[in-house]
């Protein structure tokens, strides 16, 4: 596993009236990815943004754009997000009828491929696809809304996944998404996560984006 913990601020919690500026601020503060949640109102009960917004953010940051598709039939839209400048695309196991084919499409279009797993979905669903992906996203809240509390049982799930990857000698990133705060980051990283998605804890922090991100960095180092 990569020893450096990556921080991926999620724009779901950003001020959309100042989205470019806030992404630039997170970039300057030392973020590793910019995490972009795309929701369709079907797979999850919320609607967010599409490929044009992703394209508009490309000029505000040099960081990889980590696009998380919480949508049904994601394969229909993957080429649009590739054209928009996405660097990583993650799809949900639960949303894909032909997951292997979808992962191969992401890679064919020159992006890193991720697969996400909802809180109640077992790790066994990843068994046949694990070797094909670059990162695995463990959802630590129910997908669809920001500001939820971290589900404690996720820690054991992360730990078990980490052991599986180590046993198979896979360097796959373990990204954890949902309810992460400065207080629980040490437990999450000790369990085996090496990429943390944070929305509310960075973009809605009273101390501001830079100080919040630095606080998270100190907590995991």
What does this entry look like structurally?
With 221 residues, the protein is an alpha/beta fold. The protein has one domain: TIM Barrel, CATH 3.20.20. Helix content is 32%, strand content 19%. The protein contains 8 helices and 8 strands; from the N terminus they run E-H-E-H-E-H-E-H-E-E-H-E-H-E-H-H. An 8-stranded parallel β-sheet has the order 1-8-7-6-5-4-3-2. Helix 6 links the parallel strand 7 and strand 8. Helix 5 runs parallel beside helix 6. The longest helix is centred in the C-terminal third of the chain and has 14 residues. It is globular, with a radius of gyration of 16 Å.
CATH topology: TIM Barrel
Order the strands across the largest sheet as they lie in space.
1-8-7-6-5-4-3-2
Low-confidence stretches: none
Roughly what is the average pLDDT, rounded to an integer? 93
The assigned structural class equals alpha/beta
Topology:
Layout: E1 6-9, H1 19-28, E2 34-39, H2 51-57, E3 65-70, H3 78-84, E4 88-92, H4 99-108, E5 112-117, E6 135-139, H5 154-167, E7 173-177, H6 185-191, E8 195-198, H7 200-203, H8 209-220
Parallel strand pairs: 1-8, 2-3, 3-4, 4-5, 5-6, 6-7, 7-8
Helix pairs in contact: 2-3, 5-6
Condensed summary:
This protein is an alpha/beta fold and 221 residues long.
Which descriptors would you attach to this protein?
alpha/beta; TIM Barrel; 8 helices; globular
